[in-house]
Design a protein that fits this description.
The chain contains 6 helices and 17 strands. By secondary structure, the chain is mainly beta. The chain has a domain at 50-169 and 292-296: Trypsin-like serine proteases (Thrombin, subunit H, Beta Barrel). The strands form 3 sheets. The chain has a 6-stranded antiparallel barrel with strand order 9-10-11-14-13-12. A 6-stranded antiparallel beta barrel has the order 2-3-4-8-7-6. A 3-stranded antiparallel β-sheet has the order 15-17-16. β2 and β3 form a beta hairpin. The chain starts with 27 loop residues before the first strand and ends in a 6-residue tail after the last strand.
């Protein structure tokens, strides 16, 4: 058997994650040599040039801006992904609204606070182009894995700049059999990810210019809406050995304060999701299929242009005129 017989999925309902920011310490890769030693098919410079440092500043303040989260670029013209809770003050006047057509300018929307995104040391104004309601996206306080899956804590934004071309993560095509949740009350059952997946989470933790967390995702659910790094041993040692994973592996991933919204990348260089919460060494990741299925369509509307394309065949995706529920 691939996982330990003592593992009981229902126990996970009582495992609580804490929404970021929730400061933890250690376990980060902080330079190119440390990343290279892990053997991914992307470099430190790739990850950094495709990542965003998201900050806010009071309009009446003269001090430096405050770091609040991370994000990642998904198109050459500056479309990016981050967590809804990172951008919640920008969306304060749109809490009950869902849209893929009414852009919200985060430098103008809030009377006291303006947002900026830094990429390769350059500061950009930003606008949000796709988002759901606050109720659909976030909750306050502690959050269970079941709540993490049912919420859609992500938004699509755009970096504002004339004639700028950005380095970006090329997103990979996924099967047409992906299904989003049918209803908010749908029952869920987490199960071990077979085999566990080695991943890297890129972002801007507090006190560090740029860093990458690494570890294994080891839980998922049937509809592939989310993955989790659970800080407990759930696999049989023989199964790990058969998959070239050391029995001494430390489970879970340390996600530092303000890495929320960062890209989760596998060893092949494919983005598989966005990190949205953590606590201790436990972390919750919403899948890239969940995000793309929510905001994008494979079918064009009259006069629409592709927003991005999926590798390897260049399948075009369009921001949908209706939003998947």
């Amino acid at each position: 058997m691939g996982f330990r017989r003592i593992f009981k999925p229902f126990v996970l309902i009582f495992l609580l994650f804490y929404p970021l920011p929730a400061s933890t310490h250690g376990g980060l890769l902080t330079d190119a040599k440390e990343l290279q030693a892990q053997g991914p098919a992307f470099t430190w410079d790739h990850a950094r040039s495709r990542s965003l440092k998201i900050v806010v500043q009071r309009k009446d303040a003269n001090g430096p801006p405050a770091l609040i989260g991370s994000g990642f670029i998904i198109s050459p013209d500056g479309l990016f992904v981050t967590a809804y809770h990172v951008m919640k003050y920008c969306l304060e006047n749109n809490r009950t609204r869902r849209s893929v057509s009414a852009a919200v300018d985060c430098s103008l929307e809030h009377p006291n606070i303006e947002y900026r995104a830094l990429n390769n040391g350059v500061e950009y104004e930003i606008e949000l182009v796709a988002y759901l309601t606050s109720e659909e996206s976030t909750k306050s306080g502690k959050q269970s894995p079941e709540e993490t899956i049912k919420l859609k804590d992500f938004v699509i934004g755009r970096l504002k700049g004339p004639n700028v071309r950005f380095d970006y993560w090329k997103l990979h095509d996924f099967g047409q059999d992906f299904h989003d949740q049918a209803a908010p009350s749908a029952s869920l059952e987490l199960k071990p990810l077979m085999p566990p997946k080695k991943v890297f989470i890129a972002g801007y933790p507090e006190g560090t210019d740029f860093a990458i967390a690494d570890g294994f995702l080891n839980l998922t659910e049937d509809r592939r809406r989310a993955y989790f790094a659970w800080n407990h041993e759930i696999y049989d040692p023989r199964f790990l050995a058969a998959n070239n994973i050391p029995a001494s592996t430390v489970w879970g991933i340390r996600v530092e304060n303000h890495m929320s919204g960062g890209a989760v990348i596998d060893k092949s260089g494919s983005v598989i999701g966005i990190v949205v919460n953590s606590g201790g060494r436990a972390a919750g990741v919403l899948s890239i299929e969940n995000l793309l299925g929510t905001f994008f369509s494979r079918l064009p509307q009259p006069g629409s242009r592709p927003a991005l394309s999926l590798a390897p065949a260049g399948v075009p995706l369009y921001l949908g005129h209706t939003i998947s529920h």
